[in-house]
Amino acid sequence: MVKVYALDGITPVVDPTAYVHPSAVLIGDVVIGPHAYIGPCACLRGDFGRIVVKEGANIQDNCVLHGQVESELVVDVDGHIGHGAILHSCYIGRDVLVGMNAVVMDNASVGDASIVGAMAFVKVGMQVPARSLVLGSPARVMRSLSDAEIAHKQFGTRQYQRLTLRSLASMRETEALTREEAGRPRLTRAMTKPD
């Protein structure tokens, strides 16, 4: 059962085509759009400001999304938020990848089709142009992205959109086996490949 908490009369909204892992926590003013994926142990705290995760976006395991009073944190369509990232009162543009353990701070805006590298620290108010590669702590725009780099990012996002469907169809809480069974199946590229 997903951990969903109403706060001050405001209840999180989850589109029925989205997948939210049962260990994720949604509090208050949180809106999860169609075909979105919210991973294990993600925490989306809409207890001061609104959090919006738009269509096809993924928020991976151990991410924290939070905001200031009366702010709106948006992860736009096809946003891809890597493991352990922290987003705070910011705007993540359409088709953006935020790398593992990166931090994007208040009033920062990451332009469409950009990549924020793993462990980058995007400071308060930074405005990242579209199609930018952003690295470092504090983060700096290093260069523009090529079409090939953006296409590679889009493939990864489609894999998570496929994972949303796989999870809705087959993920179930169960008991662990006590030993590996003979002929144990393996995950294959065909199973994870987006359509």
UniProtKB/TrEMBL annotation:
Residues 174-195 are annotated as: Disordered. InterPro entries: Hexapep, Transf_Hexapept/Carb_Anhydrase, Trimer_LpxA-like_sf. SUPFAM superfamilies: Trimeric LpxA-like enzymes. Pfam families: Hexapep. Residues 174-184 have a biased composition (Basic and acidic residues). This is Phenylacetic acid degradation protein PaaY. The lineage of its organism: Bacteria, Pseudomonadati, Pseudomonadota, Betaproteobacteria, Burkholderiales.
